[in-house]
């Protein structure tokens, strides 16, 4: 009877999708609920990049450059996705070896996504599902930087820069924090869904490129008003919804961790959006749609590194603090430093991600509703780890981005001509107009 039962169990297991023998001889079966959730989350993150980021940024630029922003966001996401399949995934999440590269880069076992395990180690989802989910992060991160060079960057240079950046900046940092790398295993830094890996890398790199590119013609004397706040609101709404997959999916399971991350994500966005409106009311006299959208994104970026570790009450504070810091940072970067980060990538994404990563160390405490510190860690050591990780990643992003930008510029200019900039990149770079009115 036992033999027949064992055979029946074996037959059913082998008939299940994803069933296979592990190295220990046991049958590994993916959890279908967890797998389905991560697959849906992957689609939500891709929704953030195309069309979320594209419309959010597109509405903020002048009409003559709207189409160029959409093309850049789409082309960057497409290229980064292919590079992730070819080599990015294995650099970030390949087998962790014991050689001199241990902790710095993943092994080469998963080039072209070959030799993937049946289940991702330590998880209940197929490694192919995990690779897909991480691919959407690799796609959206360089697309975030497009807001810094809007209106003036040459399309060919953008593609060359983002290709190298994806492999030299993003993939190693993803390994350091998420792939068993040294910032986590040795330093003890935490990043739930990308405050450091995504927002710090993109924000700091965007600032460096904005400095190297120089200012747009007329900046800061000429008002460069958004041509369509309505499209920006639509883009922000898509980002807001997609962020549920971004943060909730980072739990990598369909359980309370995912639900908590989503609640915290929504709470922070709500608090930040309303706080931004209040700040505008008292500083410029009227609450604006652009302010609501920008505040929401600031709150989302700030809560991202901590979404799965904190309480909803803490998430509300994250949102309020995000607006309180990111709003004046925009003024400081543009009006004090006069750096033309066109769409405030550094002030919103970069600063938001770094602030959230620091706040995480405080609100991780169980007394404040957090999940608690790892063994041997406390507030002081966790704060040191977070600051250390931010410093290392920011420095690497800045140095590597500057080098990549200069190297690519030796093959093609970074910036379009003055005539092309005046005409608009839609016509000058793509030979099309976003809007044709007869």
Would you write up a description of this structure?
The structure is a single chain. With 438 residues, the chain is mainly alpha-helical. It has a single domain (43-90, 128-421), classed as Ammonium transporter fold (Orthogonal Bundle), CATH 1.10.3430.10. 65% of the residues lie in helices and 1% in strands. It has 15 helices and 2 strands. The chain has helices at residues 2-15, 32-60, 66-93, 127-144, 155-178, 182-185, 195-213, 229-248, 256-283, 289-303, 312-336, 345-363, 379-409, 418-423, 425-430; strands at 20-21, 27-28. Strands 1-2 form a two-stranded antiparallel ribbon. Helix 2 runs antiparallel to helix 8 (229-248) and helix 8 (229-248) runs parallel beside helix 10 (289-303). The N and C termini lie far apart (81 Å). Mean pLDDT is 91; it is low at 1-27.
Compose a concise summary of this entry:
The protein is an all-alpha fold and about 450 residues long. Helices cover about 65% and strands about 0% of the residues. A two-stranded antiparallel sheet has the order 1-2.
Give the topology.
Blueprint: H1 2-15, E1 20-21, E2 27-28, H2 32-60, H3 66-93, H4 127-144, H5 155-178, H6 182-185, H7 195-213, H8 229-248, H9 256-283, H10 289-303, H11 312-336, H12 345-363, H13 379-409, H14 418-423, H15 425-430
Antiparallel strand pairs: 1-2
Instruction: State mean pLDDT (0 to 100 scale).
Output: 91
The CATH first-level class comes to Mainly Alpha
- Give the N-terminus to C-terminus distance in angstroms: 81 Å
Structural class: mainly alpha
* Silhouette: globular
Given the structure, what is the number of helices? 15
